[in-house]
Amino acid sequence: MKYICGFRRGFTLAEVLITLGIIGVVAACTLPALINATQGKELHTALLKSYSILQQAVQRMAYEEGVAVTWTNYPDKTFAPVFKKYLKMLNSCGKLNCSSSDIKPSQIYKTYNKKSSPYNDWFDEGQSILADGMFIMINNSFIKEHGIIISVDVNGINKKPNLLGHDVFSFEVYGLKVIPLGSPEQKVSSFDGDEDIWFSSDGFPCDINSTNKNNGMCCTYRALTEKDYFNNLP
User: Fold this and answer.
1) What Å distances lie between residue 139 and 124, 127, 146, 170, CA to CA?
2) Least confident range of 23-27, 126-130, 168-172
3) What is the pLDDT of residues 126-143, one digit of tens each?
4) Which residues have CB under 8 Å from 170's CB, separation 6+?
5) Element housing 149 (H / E)
6) Nearest by Cα to 155 from 168, 138, 165
7) How many Å apart are CA 109 and CA 162, to the nearest integer?
8) Cα–Cα distances in Å, from 4 out to 8, 9, 17?
9) Distance between CA atoms of residues 10 and 1, nearest Å
């Protein structure tokens, strides 16, 4: 801005364009990080909420049904019909048909690093959309060692990113507890049966480089315990 003969003159077009250019560069550098941080905060909050909802539902179920929520008491395909009574549902979709066109989870979701599609087997024994939009998928396998697994799309099936370990998180139900997969507290066995828990290096990794079709299912514990987890998603 310049003064000519005592009068103040406005900015020149060049000055305005330079200023706008600087603002644009700064915005381009900072907005993606700001958007990612905001999304990460939203997903973390939704994860905490889903964890609380599941924990309360399991505890109520154990109390009102009079038995601990374990595979022994709820073997193959018997858990979901009872558990759904303790959720505030918008839609109970049966085993595998919550999407409008019966699309399977493997057609909607990708693994942690986006390299593979997950197996449907871990999501196909009871699906529900909760009143707040969360999408619940249950696996109550005929194999005792795989236990009862609940996966939650914390921001709903129709909202991206739809990635394991990003907005889809998995838990094991055992007794009165809902245990995040990847936790040292897990009771379910690994694929080879040589361990008492699933470590991330076994069949359910949380690894940016893995092409494993279960990659991301064991990210839940990290997402709940690592401060910068959502800021460092691949």
Assistant:
1) 6, 9, 9, 10
2) 23-27
3) 888 999 999 999 998 777
4) 122, 149, 150, 151, 152, 164, 180, 181, 204, 217, 218, 220
5) strand 148-153
6) 168
7) 5
8) 6, 7, 22
9) 6
